[in-house]
Amino acid sequence: MPATLFFLLAFAPDVYRDKDGKDVITYAVSLPAKRNPAVPAALWLGFHGRGGNESQLVGSMTAGLQKAGLRDEFVVIGLKSKADGWENADDEPVRKFILYATKTWNIDPRRIYGLGYSSGSFYLNRFAPNNSDLFAGAVTYVGGQGGIAKTDTPENKAELYWVVGLKDTTVKAESVRPGAQAFLKAGFRAVYREMGDLGHEVAKEPTFEESLQWMKALRNKEVAPRAEELAFLEKFSDPQKAASQLSEGSTWTRAVAIGGHAAAPVVLAGLQSDRESARSGAAQACTKMMFDAKTVDALVALLEDKESKVRLHALSALTFQGRWSYFGAQDALSTFAKDPKRAGGERKAAIAGLQEIVKIDLLGGFQLHRVIWTLVDLLDDADGGVRQAAFLALKGIDPAGFGYVPGAEKDKRAAALEKWAAWCRRVCGEHPA
Q1: Alpha helices, DSSP H only, in 69-172?
Q2: Does any domain span residue 332?
């Protein structure tokens, strides 16, 4: 079968009609081949760019999920706006369709996400946070934002993985940046990426694969878990009775599967347990799933744990949480890495975490100022192993590393260090201290 014909058949458009037979919205659906219909699936909805249609993003979405090993977990559906691009008039049809899709394909309402491109990005950057009863979050490419409803609990709203391109001449990054910064400053949660090689494009690596890992770790904050999940969480309401269960590996497997704010109290109890096995298990759960800011604070506290094993698990967990813009995690790793009183191996583990957090930002976005400055500062650390680790984390910024040699004596490093500091001031501004 010709590839073009296969694509048309695989993502053929359909129309959702209400009970009166009136057309509500046009869509194209791609179902996973190996799905167990009895297990609620995640739903990923595509919102095309101006002039696009319901099939525009479906191919990229399914290919991305396949590459990430997540294809069998997701029902993928592309939607078509009423007009050429997405407008407020599409709000009600989208809401109706999500409710229809949830019932039709047995969707887990805590795992509904969006992918928006251009016009679809502008739309989701507003619609998803304003409709957090429907969306856990949205991945958006090359679009801005406006019309966010006021709320006293911005941290409880749908999150964004928001990507703009520094080569985009259609929606310029400088026009988007103030809105993104205001969104974050107001307390909403987003991973905001500016990519140096991105034009007016969608689903481009490395951000696309990372966004899928972000979705995997995110759950809706306003929708309650299923009855059996609530029953499991209820077992931990009595701290004395729950103490032994917090040391069981099956507890953390289940807590990760539930995830989000709903499972956060159980994770917090584990992180604060007097049992080393419970603290370790809870910290390892935080290397796979986002819960809430309180769990991040508890992970920071574990950096003072008497057990080195727990401290290392906490460092790994703070790395994971720091990737998804928990800035407290980034700050804690930065402080830990610069502390000469810490063990050298643990400091290098913290630097490896900072390297993981900042690797995409170093491709041209340079938004994570504190992390980047920390790595540059560590080039002048007294510990040669720490200097080497920091230098490796910054590898690729300059082909010759500005002439820096980690093993050189301090006076021999001075000229290169000044070049590194000058570069950092240029891309990040003055030192945050």
Answers
A1: 91-104, 119-130
A2: no
Q: 103: which residues sit within 8 A by CB, 6+ positions away? A: none
State pTM to two decimals. 0.95
Tokens 């000044």 -> residue? 418
Residues 6 or more apart in contact with residue 374 via CB below 8 angstroms: 334, 337, 338, 354
Q: Which residues of 387-417 are buried (b: 16+ CB within 10 A; e: fewer)?
A: bbbbbebbeebeeebbebebeeeeeebeebb
Closest residue by Cα to residue 290 from 107, 159, 131, 125:
159
Which residue, chain included where needed, has tokens 């590393």? 401
Domain identity same for 50 and 178: yes
Question: Is residue 208 included in any domain, yes or no?
Answer: yes
Instruction: Using alpha carbons, list the distances in angstroms from residue 30 to 59, 61, 184, 191, 238.
Output: 9, 10, 34, 27, 44
Indicate whether 162 and 290 sit together in one domain. no
| Tens-digit pLDDT profile for residues 157-198 | 999 999 999 999 999 999 999 999 999 999 999 999 999 999
Residue 4 pLDDT grade (very low, low, confident, very high; cuts 50, 70, 90) = very low
Tens of pLDDT along 268-295? Answer: 999 999 999 999 999 999 999 999 999 9
Is the domain of 297 the same as that of 415? no
